Amino acid sequence: MTRTTFKVAAVHATPELLDAEASVEKACGLIAEAGRAGVDLAVFPEVFVPGFPYWINLYPPAKQFPMHAQYRAASIEVPGPLTDRLCEAAREAEVNVVIGVSERDGGTLFNTQVHIDETGTLLGKHRKLQPTYAERYVWGQGDASTLSVFDTRLGRVGGLICWEHTMNLARQALIVDGEQIHAASWPGLGSQHGMEASFDVQVEAMCRTHAMTGACFVVVAQNPLTQGMVDRIEADLGPQDGMSAGAGWSAILDPQGMIVAGPHTGAEETLLTAEVDLAEIDGAHALLDGRGHFSRSEILRLWVDREPKTPSAPAGPSPAADRPTGADR
Prior knowledge:
Elements: E1 5-12, H1 20-36, E2 41-43, H2 65-74, H3 81-93, E3 96-105, E4 108-116, E5 122-127, E6 149-152, E7 155-161, H4 168-176, E8 181-185, H5 199-214, E9 217-221, H6 227-237, E10 249-253, E11 259-265, E12 270-277, H7 279-285
Parallel strand pairs: 1-2, 2-3, 7-8, 8-9
Antiparallel strand pairs: 1-12, 3-4, 4-5, 6-7, 9-10, 10-11
């Protein structure tokens, strides 16, 4: 039975960069801590396993190749042995978990959110639809077959990764699917030179917008960038002046777009928690329901292609033949 009142947490913590085993071990410890604190849903930052590849914005592309090779080696399969460990930690702690990983599938990597319920069941995953800017050196594009909202005992949980929140139609797809709790996974980029004043403001604006337009709770999880991570990058690629230690902005928002916990900023690691009540969503819907009376579906309709995009397809008519025309979308 779906509960209406429960505790959620934004995991404001730093992974062990380029070390999947150690990052998973740390995540399991944080999941156990969340369970002891009575947390029902814990949301981790973007690619917590094995950390965000911050060097992509700091060095010429050709110089980055050795780090990309290390990053590929540290990426994980979903499902796989390390996600099995995360599932077991969720089961033992009785905590629902959304955690970012760099997923290896054949020869391609994907920036992926993994969704696990409190029984340790891997509910599914969401692959980032559009890697941002230099992220395209590292990850392939996801498709809408993983643009998902999952049924849990807490309600319907979905999520997006970083600047996917600028993709208004992706957000609307989750809204139309009845999302009630939104996992917003981000890296900490507020200490990247040129973004110090803007990044956290952008994150807050986009997540407030989604909370209000989707009438859902939004859990924003970022990680700080530590000096150890900076040193690890510079040890392989040399000095840089594009990013320093710092950043990290995590918060929890209600369906009115108001911050109900945080924001928590900076290097101090914490589980930022808040009690949420799904009954607040019904009150928000009295004003605005983006999948109902405020959608104007007779003139504005969203079509989402859920077909997995693979290199080959079964013989037969092209899936495009069944697609609606522009007037029907």
